[in-house]
Amino acid sequence: MGGRAVCMVAVGDLPYAEYGIRTWRDWCTRRSISFHLIDHDGGLHPTFSKYRVFELFPDVDRFTVVDADTMVRWDCPDFAEGVGTSFGACVDLGHVGWIVQSLQAHEPFFPCVNVPWWDYVNSGVLVMSRAHQRVAEGVLTWAREHPEPIRFGNNWRSYDQTVLNYVLRELGTLVHYLPLDFNLTKIRQRGLWEERRYVDVAHVWHFNENRKESDMAETWEVVRRHYS
To answer: Where along the chain do its domains lie?
Structure first.
């Protein structure tokens, strides 16, 4: 056992995924890191597929797991190197109202576990090692026992992300909070879309807004010259 890998979850018909794949695959090739695509759900909602990396890739002991709507800048530093044995993720400072209500909706399933909204992490970019297999198993167990999404608020739905946050707390997992430029979410909401400012101020761009396919396609046209 040994080695590292970047694993991207792209299950189903996701036209925008090709742009994320191109950037991450090229980034991995330049650094001699394996790149794996997870394109089957294992009978669960696709967002839970990222927690299957330990069973899917038994020869890998360190993982960076990314969503299909992320793109990595060509010169992004290897941020996983500084995580050590901790669980790596970025705090989610996107829709705080959604986060608070999602935490409240899941609270009955995790009695006596408290997750402050300001420590809530986004699951779009995760750094894990074999030491975190219990975390993944905890999330997968929950998913199998609760196959339907938790609904709350304005017909919102929650899948893996809030469950992950509760499981991390429940197990007392040490989390290394990555700088936000390694998972920049809500690009338009943050006022960074115009003149493609996000390209210069962040290393991983997470297009988790409604126009992700067109936004990722336009971004690719701007940056494609930097990739092989």
So the answer is: 4-226
Asked if 186 contacts 212 with a C-beta cutoff of 8 angstroms, the reply is no
CATH class belonging to 4-226: alpha beta
Of 25, 72, 76, which is closest to residue 205 (Cα–Cα)? 72
CB 2 within 8 A of CB 59: yes
Distance of alpha carbon 66 from alpha carbon 47, whole angstroms? 11
**List of E strands, 103-170:** 121-129, 150-152, 156-158
Task: Tell me if the pTM is above 0.85.
Answer: yes
Q: Which phi and psi angles does 166 have, rounded to 5°?
A: -70, -40
Q: Do 26 and 224 contact (CB within 8 A), yes or no? A: no
How many whole angstroms separate alpha carbon 107 and alpha carbon 56? 30
The DSSP symbol for 63 reads E
Residues 165-215: tens digit of each pLDDT: 999 999 999 999 999 999 999 999 999 999 999 999 999 999 999 999 999
